[in-house]
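In practice, a research group might receive sequence data for several interacting partners and want a quick structural hypothesis before committing to experiments. The following worked case mirrors that situation: the sequences arrive first, and a predicted assembly follows.
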Amino acid sequence: MEQKRCITSLTAEQLTAELKAMGQPGFRAKQIFRWVHQKLVTEFSQMTDQPKNLIAQLEQSFYIAAPQIERRQEAKDGTVKYLLRMADGNCIETVVMRYHYGNTVCVSTQVGCRMGCRFCASTQAGRVRDLEAGEICSEIYTAQKDIGERISHIVLMGIGEPLDNYDQVMTFLHLISSPEGVNIGMRNISLSTCGLVPMIDRLAQEKLQLTLSVSLHAPNNEIRSSMMPVNNAYPVEPLMEAVRRYQDTTGRRVSFEYSMVRGVNDTDACARQLAHLIRGMGAHVNLIPINPVDGSPYSATDAENVRRFQTKLTSLGVNATVRRRLGSEISAACGQLRREEMQGKA
Ligand code: SAH
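A structural hypothesis for the assembly, expressed as tokens:
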């Protein structure tokens, strides 16, 4: 039998075409899209305004992405971390963070990751597969239903490299910002990349209003290559040129992530080089002490040194903030829950 397809991944146009092929009028597609992306049902039988025979037909060909909450951890500050099991049995992680401006979900975009950053738990076992657009949507829908509050912001900063799953991530952005769905505005979405230069150029052409965040983590090739293998393919200079092109094309300011590793990228000299690299771009730097993961040689810069680094950057004309570590007692670094799960099975 043919495998069922994920209906959550279809755009409104694709859904209309599918239903037309089934001999159904256009308004059905619109209704079904709303059931999936606005009312967040997980079974076709919950679509109470649809004819029984259509529901049966849909059930034969499609499924609605509805991951199981395999584990759920809640911190005192309200941060909730989920280990979600997808339809094929693979697990990913999703996190909800409560900020004064609204609830933010951090979504995974792949099962695993092939970028190989040395400090990151998500990449240690490589990439298993890409997530489909609808599966990424379902992370948000699952979280929203679980906490019983609207999700207003999204960061693509969970497991995976979003620009290594480009087409599905673009479809996801289209679905999640649809007025017929949960309607999360592009300005409330941040996409984080380890720096795939050709894909940054491609993204620029989409001219989306989202915030691009670049995981820089080091101000020169020697240090960056030691932390991130992707730097061998796309070193700092071409990366910064791509960021400038991105800003010029989209008119949107880029922000930089800088995870601080004791004795590696947290020296005064690094702060000076970093300032030199990005001064005048209007860009913002987010500083965060590295979250140490098993099997990685890195330890975190202490809070006092993070402050000192920030002060240095500020005095050199670069805007930098220290990110709060929400849910620190549960929020083992991204990818750690999944890894525990995989090790448990092994
Ligand atoms: N692949 C994308 C998005 C996922 S990672 C990217 O590289 O940007 C989200 C952010 O967390 C990135 O900035 C990443 O470098 C950082 N990160 C990963 N593991 C970390 C750890 N153990 N401590 C601190 N930051 C980490």
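Before designing any experiment, note the following. The chain has a mean pLDDT of 94. The first helix runs from residue 12 to 21.
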